[in-house]
Write a structure and sequence with these properties.
With 983 residues, the chain is of the alpha+beta class. Helix 9 runs antiparallel to helix 10 (348-400) and helix 16 crosses helix 19.
């Protein structure tokens, strides 16, 4: 027997007259009549304010007249007044939520049980961040384990349900959902789940698209299916991204993870069990998006299953409706495709009418968009003209107030005519006043007979660079000397004075450029140096290195020392163009050419003939700036030592010396990898779905992998060779994948994953990890690639073996010259390796000839790679000291005909197998901020307990890129790098 409701306020049944209820003296018939309506029944039987609020939110997405919707809203608020003593359900739900704050949130802890009938999926509808209503399914997360019971990192969850009325009053028929699911599985699950759910929009062609955001990528999928209980179950795992790591943390803590369908399709309205519901007629499933902390438990409900007989009627009705086309629901592109495929159809006249209507709509939309753009451009031009006029007036007023003669003022007005914003006038006037005043002072000192030798050197009017202008310089020198001693005691390395001299000159130029361009980070840095120098007296520091609060009192000076220490020993710095930049991106001009740069055009033009124009467009290519960071820990004892007495150089240096060493090694690796990337990508060959032949796969053993390797099978990539006739001496380098920005022919900035590598076992896409050639370990994946040897290593868990062979898509380099290191019998090695010297001549001539036209300046390899060169008979003639070397430092050991030879004693991607030839300054090194020391932060031990030590961080904003001249087809002109590969 149902519990009789007692209302604190009388219900006015006239509110419900529109849906068949009448007012009577007896309340019982009114209650029964209300219970007959499914929606009103939900309102009457809801047991909590949160549940009532969820029903109210559902009503916003239910097809109702506004009058009916207001009736249901009034009934919900009447419940709020009667049962919860509040005037609206929102207030009641808020109070109920406050009462539950101390209760644990609902969570679905990972279970080792794999029975899907215990998942008990629940559904609700929530508003996501894009203000769109999305159905959410939440269920128990089940980890997937291997045969030994160990977690694989994959999970399974219920993500949707078919043949049921879900929380958004929608039915997904199993036959419709299955067809869409099969298509998704066939495509290999190309999309990743995001959080939050991406915003949807309709593109110009009428198709629904989703506005994905890179930093929101969270989970990947590998399989999905429908079980016997009509649950849609997906297998997924968190990605190693910020959002993916949050999901993994929530799984570990047993917090709720929900999933929402990201899909498009068409629906029709049907009456099912007395309710109007939407039945999916076609679906296009993209992916399922995870939802974190999806909603309150009471807002979720079990889906209402549809009996088989009812589903048969629904499907039969859909089948009949499909025969009658609804052209107005189709996009213009879909209409044209249908018309082409259904010539002579009885409904062709309706299709033509729909096409005409859609074309008019599209034309109107295009016209409105054009008018909008024209309006925005006019507004932009008017605003620019207004600001320019205001800037000129402000400049005129400021110059008029200066105490100079009219000629100087006229010159200042002419120089400042390029200013477009009045906000820039003050800094311009200040800078020019300092410049003019310095000239006046210089003239007056000369008139008084003061010699130039006695004056401070002035480069920028406001910055003196003599000893008086840099009082922090002695402290930086002493700290660097102490760091050199620490490094020498650890590595035995002796600094190269010539290399340091060249590198420090490059650093000075980059910093001065940042100063000239008014870089805000550089201005803060210089101001901090000036403030820190206040504690310096005649080259000695009067304050402690560490203040009483534990922070570095002279942080700016220490930052300057760290940056200088890191830059001065860079091996590759002389090979790149270092320059400063401001903002979040590094902008480099790049050309797009419409015709061959080196065509044999005749430039002689007749007197009345038209002058041909060059098809070249210069655009700014933006490269994302990166913050490189590294930390160090300073113990309490060391801090006390540095606080006692004068500046303790040795104590501070021992704590900080590792930071510049880390930065120096990282930057050298990034420079060399960028150059190798560009060399390998030029005219690389793309191989799609190469089926691994039986002759090109073998089990891993001590002959092909290091001892203790976790590789089970080794695959040799053919790289254009024929299966069965694999020649290991002709295997080029596999091109490394990376995200590469570019500008399309329309001048728009784009980015793409270049040279992607995809390995599949059947329909399953395997996860690529990294290969450690020393230990033979495949890390964080099913397989890994040895790019230099052209081999792919698979784990046992990947499912790959000699029977179940994979298919692999990749790119291989063609911009390579092979050199065989095998010395023929009877030939002296010193004579044989003369050919390597000759190869340098040939490669230099090849790169400098058509169609490349880039003469290399340097050739560099590892110590082992360059040994082959040094043992040749002609080496000493090659290394003749005659002439002037372009590059400085001991690593550059020889030069001939302008080609500098160098050897690097540090890890780099090419290892000992290749020598890189290239052009100096082809690669750019953008510096967005000087290196800075920051801190202190608390330091915790391995158990998470606070210690007395402090953490400090060194940070620097950089961007490393190689802008290339391309034509409209993306073909690169003047490739700056090429490699010689040893076989």
């Amino acid at each position: 027997m149902k519990k009789k409701l007692k209302f604190l306020f009388p219900l006015n049944a006239q509110f419900f007259a529109n849906i068949g209820f009448t007012a009577e003296e007896n309340n019982e018939p009114v209650k029964d009549a209300l219970s007959d309506d499914p929606l009103m029944k939900q309102i009457l039987e809801a047991t909590s304010a949160i549940a009532l609020l969820a029903i109210k939110k559902n009503l916003a997405n239910t097809p109702l007249t506004e009058v009916d919707r207001r009736i249901y809203y009034e009934a919900i608020d009447a419940r709020a007044r009667a049962d919860f003593s509040t005037w609206c359900i929102e207030e009641a739900a808020k109070q109920e939520q406050e009462e539950k704050e101390n209760k644990p949130s609902i969570g679905f802890a990972a279970s080792n049980t794999v029975h899907t009938d215990s998942l008990e999926p629940k559904f609700s509808v929530i508003m996501d961040s894009s203000e769109e209503s999305k159905e959410v399914c939440i269920s128990k997360v089940v980890p997937i384990t291997d045969s030994s019971g160990k977690s694989t990192g994959w999970y399974k969850s219920v993500v949707s349900k078919v043949d049921s009325v879900n929380g958004n009053l929608c039915i997904y028929p199993k036959s419709v959902y299955s067809q869409a699911l099969d298509a998704l599985k066939k495509s290999g699950f190309p999309y990743t789940g995001e959080n939050p759910h991406p915003r949807s929009y309709r593109s110009k062609n009428g198709k629904v698209q989703f506005d994905s955001v890179l930093e929101n990528q969270a989970v990947v999928f590998r399989d999905a299916y429908i079980d016997n209980d009509s649950n849609v179950i997906a297998e997924w795992k968190p990605m190693d991204t910020p959002k993916g790591r949050i999901i993994q943390a929530m799984l570990d803590e047993g917090k709720p993870i929900g999933f929402s369908n990201r899909m498009t399709g068409s629906t029709v309205e049907k009456t099912v069990n007395g309710r109007q519901v939407k039945v999916a007629r076609s679906l296009d499933i993209r992916v399922w998006d995870p939802v974190l902390n999806p909603a309150e438990e009471a807002a979720f409900s079990l889906p209402e299953p549809i009996v088989d007989s009812a589903m048969e009627q629904i499907l039969d009705s859909l089948s009949k409706e499909d025969k009658k086309m609804n052209f107005l629901d189709m996009t213009l592109e879909e209409l044209r495709v249908w018309k082409k495929a259904n010539s002579g159809h009885a409904d062709m006249a309706l299709c033509d009418a729909a096409i005409a209507t859609k074309e008019k709509e599209q034309a109107l939309t295009d016209e409105l968009e054009l008018l909008r753009k024209e309006k925005e451009e006019r507004a932009r031009q008017e605003e620019a003209e207004r600001k320019k006029k205001e800037a000129i007036q402000t400049l005129t007023d400021a110059v008029a107030a200066l105490p100079y003669d009219q000629k100087v003022k006229d010159g200042l007005l002419q120089k400042g005519s390029v200013i477009t914003d009045a906000a820039e006038v003050d800094s311009f006037i200040q800078r020019e006043r300092e410049f003019v005043d310095s000239l006046v002072i210089d003239q007056r000192l000369g008139a008084l007979g003061v010699p130039n030798a006695g004056r401070a050197a002035i480069i920028e009017p406001s910055v003196q660079v003599g000893a008086e202008g840099q009082p922090w310089k002695p402290i930086v020198d002493n700290l660097q000397a102490a760091m050199d001693d620490v490094i020498r005691s650890k590595t035995g390395a002796i600094p190269d004075p010539e290399l340091r001299k060249a590198n420090l000159a490059i650093m000075d130029r980059a910093l001065k450029q940042m100063e000239r361009e008014n870089n805000q980070e550089f201005k803060k840095y210089v101001q901090s140096l000036t403030d820190s120098a206040a504690a310096i007296n005649d080259g000695a520091i009067t304050d402690s290195a560490v203040s009483t609060t534990g922070d570095f009192a002279q942080a700016a000076i220490i930052s300057n020392a760290l940056m200088t220490q890191a830059w001065q020993d860079l091996n590759f710095l002389q090979l790149v163009m270092a320059e400063g930049f401001g903002g979040t991106t590094y902008k480099v001009p790049v050309e797009i050419l419409s015709t061959d740069l080196y065509s044999q055009d005749d430039l002689v033009v007749g007197e009345l003939d038209g002058i041909p124009t060059e098809g070249a467009t210069t655009s700014l290519l933006e490269f994302g700036a990166e913050w490189i960071k590294r930390g160090t820990v300073v113990t309490k004892e060391a801090m006390v030592e540095m606080q006692s007495g004068p500046f303790r150089y040795d104590v501070l240096a021992r704590n900080l010396a590792n930071l510049p060493m880390r930065f120096q090694r990282y930057l050298d690796q990034r420079f060399s990898l960028e150059m190798l990337h560009v060399a390998d990508e030029y005219q690389a060959k793309v191989v799609s779905n190469e089926a691994v032949a039986e002759t090109e796969i073998e089990a891993a053993d001590s002959s092909n992998v290091p001892f203790g390797s976790n590789a089970a099978f080794v695959v040799k990539l053919l790289c254009g060779q024929a299966a069965g006739s694999y020649n290991p001496k002709l295997v080029p380098t596999i091109v490394r994948p990376r995200i590469r920005p570019f500008i399309d022919p329309a001048g728009q900035r784009q980015s793409t994953v270049a040279n992607n590598i995809i390995a599949k076992q059947g329909s399953k896409t395997l996860t690529r990890g990294t290969w450690d050639p020393v230990t033979g370990q495949i890390k964080n994946g099913d397989y890994a690639v040895d790019f230099e040897k052209g081999k792919v290593y698979f784990t046992a868990d990947s499912g790959v073996d000699t029977t179940n062979r994979p298919t692999i898509s990749y790119s291989y380099a063609t911009n390579i010259s092979f050199f065989d290191l095998s010395v023929p019998n009877g030939v002296e090695p010193s004579k044989y390796f003369n050919r390597l010297l000759e190869r340098f001549d040939y490669e230099k001539a090849y790169m400098g000839s058509a169609p490349r036209y880039v003469t290399p300046d340097f050739a560099i390899g590892s110590l082992n790679a360059m040994v082959n060169l040094k043992i040749s008979e002609l080496f000493y003639k090659w290394a003749s000291p005659e002439g002037t070397r372009l590059l400085q430092g001991r690593m550059w050991f020889a030069d001939r005909n302008g080609l500098n030879l160098g050897e690097i004693n540090a890890p780099w991607a090419a290892g000992d197998s290749r020598i890189l030839l290239g052009k100096i300054n082809a690669t750019r090194f953008g510096v967005g901020s000087p290196m800075q020391i920051e801190g202190p932060e608390p330091y915790y031990d391995a158990n998470g307990k606070l210690t007395s030590a402090k953490q400090y961080y060194a940070t620097e904003q950089i961007s490393i890129a190689t802008p290339l001249v391309t034509d409209k087809n993306g073909i690169v002109y003047n490739p700056p790098y090429r490699t010689i590969k040893f076989v």
